[in-house]
Amino acid sequence: MKTVRTPDARFENLPDYPFAPNYCEVPDGDGGSLRIHYVDEGPADGEIVLCLHGQPSWSFLYRHMIPVFVEAGYRVIAPDLVGFGKSDKPTERGDYTYARHVAWMSAWLEALDIQGANLFCQDWGGLIGLRLVAAYPERFARVVAANTGLPDGGGLPKEAAKPMWDLYETIPIVPAADLGTHFAAKDGPPGFFFWRKYCAESPEFNVGDVMTVVGSGNETAPAVRAAYEAPFPSAEYEGGARQFPSLVPIFPDDVEIPANQKAWESLAAYAKPFRTSFASDDPVTAGMQTILENRVAGAKEVDHIIIEDAGHFLQETKGPEVAAAMIDFMKRYPSS
User: Fold this and answer.
1) Residue 28 belongs to a domain with what CATH number?
2) Measured in whole angstroms, how far is the alpha carbon of residue 179 from the centre of its chain?
3) Of 1, 7, 19, 231, which is the most buried if we count CB atoms within 10 A?
4) Among residues of the chain, what percentage have pLDDT more than 70?
């Protein structure tokens, strides 16, 4: 497996990101290893808050939340998924699979021997993080799921895949600036189809543009945009950022659906506190909170919240408020 590592100079003078780097080596599943970067702030003996990001962001997304948790006495651990941030990046898109991401982060979780974690997961941080909770329920004390889900085919038969694929093949590659319009459309192909095709096929793919598609404003600030683009100095580094949407198991013939269905069996029995904390203005994951609230055992006994005036990357524009709400949640709901 060929990998690249973003030069450290790309991460100098980032706004509001003074955190020291930490690294852990995990098997790549191909006879080699991958270096995963993570932020580790706060008291070493503090209760852990584990923050998992999605596509195409990295731990920089949590820079407004980390200080709030630390000030409250928590230890915050925020890794960069393989292919993102300061972590190693396989250059071939085919090297990125859903199963491999779960395996890489499982190895990382075990290597750090994380116990009693309070998970905050958003976007792909949930698709991977919820699989970790299902596999290691004893390691997680509570969960806050934000703008995420665990797709499992929605009960559609495999025969439904062909017309869905046929529809997907007919849609054009649209500019990033038009993606928001397709997400907001009340009819026609799902907006996610356009998002997936843009990331997978557009010759004009740009991480900064992706961050602004369904954001809430802060992502457009030049220094912030540059920080999100920093991990990707050239196309060779963008395999994960381009491939992630294609790995979401939305088609009923996806190879990962059985694994997600099995994970749901574990989550259905996960009785520790589980909250949804979704944004009011996220067209990407709207409605997924209801699925989580209805299917996870621990979600039935807690209150759930909506973060007002926030988009898909709610950590970016509402980070302190989101962190404060999670602290209140952890204090009010003891873990069994």
Assistant:
1) 3.40.50.1820
2) 19
3) 231
4) 99
In the chain, the percentage of residues whose pLDDT exceeds 90 is 88
CA dihedral 185, 214, 237, 145 (to 10 degrees): -110
Of the candidates 157, 127, 145, 106, the one whose C-alpha atom is nearest the C-alpha of residue 259 is 127
Domain end (from 231, 247, 263): 247
Helix (H) or strand (E) holding 67: helix 66-71
Query: Which tokens in the block code for residue 245?
Result: 């949407």
This prediction's pTM: 0.96
**Would you name the residues annotated as active-site residues?**
123, 282, 312
Mean of pLDDT values over 80-88: 98
How many independent structural domains does the chain possess? 2
Phi-psi bin for 23: left (phi > 0), alpha (psi -120 to 50), beta? beta
Residue 41: phi, psi to the nearest 5? -125, 155
CA distances from 49 to 36, 143, 145 (A): 18, 10, 13
